[in-house]
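Hi D.,

Good news: the full-assembly prediction came through. Inputs first.
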Amino acid sequence: MTIDNYKNVVVTGASSGIGEAIARCLSQEGLNVHAIARRTERLENLASTTNCLVHSMDVCNSREFVDLLEKIEVDVLINNAGVGRGYGQLAEANFEDIETTIDTNVKAAVHAAKAVLPGMIRRKKGHLINIGSMAGLYPLASSLYGATKGAMHVLSMDLRLELQGTGVRVTEICPGRVSTEFYDAALDDPELIENKKDSGITEVTSEDVSQAVVYALNVPQHVNVNRIELQPTEQTYGGMQFVPRSSK
Ligand SMILES: NC(=O)c1ccc[n+]([C@@H]2O[C@H](COP(=O)([O-])OP(=O)(O)OC[C@H]3O[C@@H](n4cnc5c(N)ncnc54)[C@H](OP(=O)(O)O)[C@@H]3O)[C@@H](O)[C@H]2O)c1
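Then the structure:
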């Protein structure tokens, strides 16, 4: 069990959804989990019900975020914090939402990786898990969000190449629809939020995703789980659309 070789884990975006489930699960597995997010109350609840150490912080405050990470001997980094501001058509996105989504989903993840990798390389062990998305791999009419998740995909692939021979492993986890608060944070219109959340299918759960993380951490050291895609059985991508110009 390679999970036993690891001690300290950092999970970003651990106050709800996928990140919270991963933090709870890895704490249960006996790891020393540092859970990062902005909502203090949620983090306090996590701290009082698990052994997680919580840090109330905005990962977009790059300097503060990097300073914290450099103080921890991080064995496993879970780059999970993410938002879908500006979700939908790019032509309708506003300036602030573009900044927020790129800063949270990409800039913070790159800073985090850079902060922890030198220590991992020196110790010849470590595991970087990037929470990407099916939206980073397949077309979705939400190009801003897709572009940020596509960046996580290339970051994961390129890091594997850079880290070859170091013993540090890199895994990308790409969920399809997971039942979380994602759309509550992404959208402003309550009706739109309800519509988006009501997929009418049985969605993947955050706990399902946390099990994928445990799997990736637990395979023997000589195996690198490159990518896990998990989507609801009732969801898929692709198909063909024909939209006459006159309809827009
Ligand atoms: N739900 C889906 O269908 C789905 C599918 C594919 C991929 N994903 C990805 O999964 C990841 C987790 O999303 P989720 O679905 O679990 O949604 P969620 O419940 O909204 O969780 C997002 C987490 O990110 C944190 N976060 C956001 N901005 C932050 C910031 N600036 N600083 C620190 N923490 C921040 C939030 O905490 P605070 O608000 O407390 O800061 C929260 O803990 C994201 O990267 C998302 O893109 C989700």
